[in-house]
């Protein structure tokens, strides 16, 4: 979230609110050992009317290049952003 907010500010995108409902898929083996297989971040991002949503979506790809967590986990992390437009 913090990297997205940083990139959004640099791009002139005024994020008014940011909430997330992440989902993850995991598995547990017969021995009881478990692991995550994938995760999807599902942020709800509130922006003003007139915001370029394609530009906002493009920022998520940049986050994966610099985010400590995204670069550290051994499973894919996807982003399915949803936007709320405020007038």
Q: What integer value in Å does the Rg equal?
A: 15 Å
| Annotation, overall tally of beta strands | 6
Overall geometry: elongated
Mean pLDDT: 94
Indicate the multimeric state.
single chain
Q: What is the element string, with H for helices and E for strands?
A: HEEEEHHEE
Give the second-level CATH assignment, the architecture. Answer: 2-Layer Sandwich
The percentage helix is 25-40%
Largest sheet: 3 strands, mixed
Query: What's the domain count?
Result: 1
CATH homology superfamily name? K homology (KH) domain
Main structural class: alpha/beta
Helical run tally? 3
Give the strand content. Answer: 35-45%
Molecular structure report:
The chain has 87 residues and is of the alpha/beta class. It has a single domain (2-86), classed as GMP Synthetase, Chain A, domain 3 (2-Layer Sandwich). Helices cover 32% and strands 37% of the residues. The protein is built from three helices and six strands, in the order αββββααββ. The chain has helices at residues 2-10, 53-66, 68-72, and strands at residues 17-20, 23-28, 34-41, 43-48, 77-79, 82-86. It has a three-stranded mixed sheet with strand order 1-4-6, with no helix packed on it. The protein has a three-stranded mixed sheet with strand order 2-3-5, with no helix packed on it. The longest helix has 14 residues, at 53-66. The radius of gyration is 15 Å and the shape is elongated. The protein starts with a helix and ends with a strand. The mean pLDDT is 94.
């Amino acid at each position: 979230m913090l990297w997205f907010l940083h990139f959004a500010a640099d791009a002139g995108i005024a994020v008014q609110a940011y909430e997330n409902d992440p989902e993850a898929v995991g598995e547990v083996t017969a021995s009881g050992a478990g692991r995550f297989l994938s995760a999807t971040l599902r942020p709800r991002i509130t922006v003003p009317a007139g915001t370029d949503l394609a530009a906002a979506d493009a920022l998520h790809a940049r986050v994966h290049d610099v985010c400590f967590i995204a670069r550290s986990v051994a499973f894919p992390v996807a982003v399915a952003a949803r936007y709320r437009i405020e007038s």
